[in-house]
Amino acid sequence: MNGHKIRILHDSETKEDVLKDIISQTKEEDSFMVLELDDIVRKVERWRRLLPRVDLFYAVKCNPERAIINTLVSLGCGFDDCASKSEIRCVLDAGAKSSHVVFANTVKRISHLHYAAKNGVELLTFDNLDELHKIKENYPRAKLLLRFRCDDKDATYSLGNKFGAEPDETGNLLREAKGLDLDLVGVAFHVGSMCKRPSVYAEAITTARKIFDEAVTLGFSPYLLDIGGGFSGGRNNNFEEIAEVVNHQFDFHFPDDGITKVGDAGYCWPIIAEPGRYVVGSSCSLATQVTGKRKKKDPSGQWEIMEYYINDGKHGCFFEVIESLPVPLSCGAKKREEVPTTIFGQTCCGEDVVCKDVTLPVMQTGEWLMWEDMGAYTVSMTTNFNGFKPAKVILTMSTELLLYYMRKDLESGYHSPGKEHLANPVITRPARYHYTNRRLKQENVLPDVLRNQNLWYTTLMWYDSSGMTDGSSWAVSSFVGALDRGNWRQGVSKATRFPGVCPQLMMVMVFQFAPSSIHRKDFDSETTTFSAPS
Fold first, then answer.
1. What's the first-to-final CA gap in the chain, in angstroms?
2. 168 close to 221: Cβ distance less than 8 angstroms
3. Structural domain includes residue 435
């Protein structure tokens, strides 16, 4: 995340507009990505609307960008599928509570178990006898989730060949855990990445209920169900269909009556899931440049095939098979002939093929292409193979989300960050805060997911291309405070005394917070002297 820039989107501005603008203003030769934080907020809001009983615990491996982690922390999400102490450290450093983290690698290094124990991360998964004994020896007070296997055979990526106990093995694992005096608190499963068959969740939840009941008969008090991932994240997905199946199964097997009777004891049923692609898949668009091309005949010698080379590839953002084809970013281009096409990556690896035998418009060397739905398993999978740099990331945010975070910065009383944070646009400083500001509610500038909640929020640092100093961070907060008191001219005067203050940001804040008697023309006259001193 260090060094990433944040770009504030205007009302009608799109990611495609941002990509074109960056290309037109720079001599960029490397691929780059635009990450839309608002898309992630919308995904969380949709999740909570369609799966109200399931707490979202993000799968960090999918895209560990610092801005994504911080945004999810601010929205009160948890983190699942943390596979190592590095991923655990990543989310804890961002302000996640240790109780909202699952160490979900079913085979863990001993040093990583010690790290989890030291940092209070108690939820661990297991699926074999050897792991139980390892946990008993190194972290006996851990709270355990038994992961069992239930696969969607049509899923894009199967996980059951590597993870999850077979259903007929779970009884033996439960008995061993009881004999070791370990604390089993629940059951977990994962149907496979990008599930195609929603009915498999019904099978899995039914099996989970049976394992719960057997655990109770052995003297455990299980209360937590982890339904894993498998939720697609692109624009075309089956999430609503999956949600309908899952909710129906909850009503039958884990009814939401507050307390469910199991024998003579009563248990509540917290339910979590570990979506990755769903959260970030559609949040990113990648821009790549055509660096070369050639024509070839097909094997019969009849059809011409166009072959293009781009400045990214399989060792970069195209590790996985792509779900959508690129769109040329040339402005005002006429309709072009479409031909059979192959696109190669930039490395000397013969397997570096981005897509093959697809139909695309004829393109020119130097032309830029936009690839959508590139948020999942792209930047997290990149390497420096052949000396090529990973794609740069540019963050975008709407004025509504900007105002939310700016407001939190002011009300937290946090005006002067330490110098160690100055390179980061997203400052990790969580604080508990109950949102009560009437003005913002009445003006309806916040997404529903951000209203009336007890949130963990993240302080953001805003700056233009020249960067921002401690003083200008104070100036922005001082400016907002002056606006709140109705003295917007005083706020402008204070804010522009320091380098790095963005005039566009000041205008956003004026027209959001200033009294209605202020007219745009009044402010425009001020902008003649509204540049930050050098």
1. 27
2. no
3. no
**Could you tell me how far CA 333 lies from the centroid of its own chain?**
34
Quote the pLDDT of residue 4: 53
* pLDDT tens sequence across 380-427: 999 999 999 999 898 888 767 766 665 554 444 333 222 222 222 332
Length of the chain: 534
* Both tokens assigned to 329: 């970013």
147 and 123 in a common domain: yes
Average the pLDDT over 11-31 and give the result. 82
CATH at residue 352: 2.40.37.10
Give the contacts of 167 (CB within 8 A, at least 6 positions apart).
Answer: 148, 149, 150, 207, 211
What is the domain extent for residue 458?
Answer: 402-424+446-529
Domain identity same for 51 and 174: yes
Same domain, 164 and 195: yes
Q: What is the pLDDT of residues 226-278, one digit of tens each?
A: 999 989 877 767 899 999 999 999 988 988 765 444 434 434 468 999 999 99
Q: How far apart, in whole angstroms, are the C-alpha atoms of residue 424 and residue 56?
A: 26
Residue 218 has phi, psi (to 5 degrees) of -85, -5
Domain count, the chain: 3
* Residue type present at position 200: V
Beta bridge partners of 126: 146
* Residue 440 identity (one-letter amino acid): L
Burial of 414 (0-12, 13-18, 19+ CB in 10 A): middle
Same domain, 239 and 349: no
Q: Which residues contact 257 (CB under 8 A, 6 or more apart)?
A: none
Which of 281, 306, 335 is the last residue in one of the domains? Answer: 281
Q: Is residue 307 part of a domain?
A: yes
Which position has the token pair 């309806």? 444
Which of 281, 315, 335 terminates a domain? The answer is 281
pLDDT in the model for residue 405: 61
Q: Which of 403, 402, 410 is nearest to 476 (CA)?
A: 410
323 within domain boundaries? yes
DSSP assignment of 460-474 equals E---BTTB--HHHHH
> Within this chain, do residues 217 and 236 fall inside the same structural domain, yes or no?
yes
pLDDT score of 492 more than 50:
no
Listed in sequence order, the DSSP H helices in 218-269 are: 239-253
Whether residue 195 lies in the annotated active site? no
Question: In the numeric block, which tokens belong to residue 412?
Answer: 């937290």
User: Both 453 and 355 in a single domain?
Assistant: no
Mark whether 235 and 182 lie in a shared domain: yes
For the chain, the farthest-separated pair of C-alpha atoms sits apart, in whole angstroms, at 78
> What integer pLDDT is reported at residue 403 of this predicted model?
61
The answer to whether residues 30 and 42 belong to one domain is no
DSSP state of 407: H
**437 domain-assigned:** no
Which residue type occupies 478?
Answer: S
**Which residue among the candidates 90, 348, 349, 355 is catalytic per the annotation?**
348
For 45-93, write each residue's pLDDT tens digit: 999 999 999 999 999 999 999 889 988 988 889 998 899 999 999 999 9
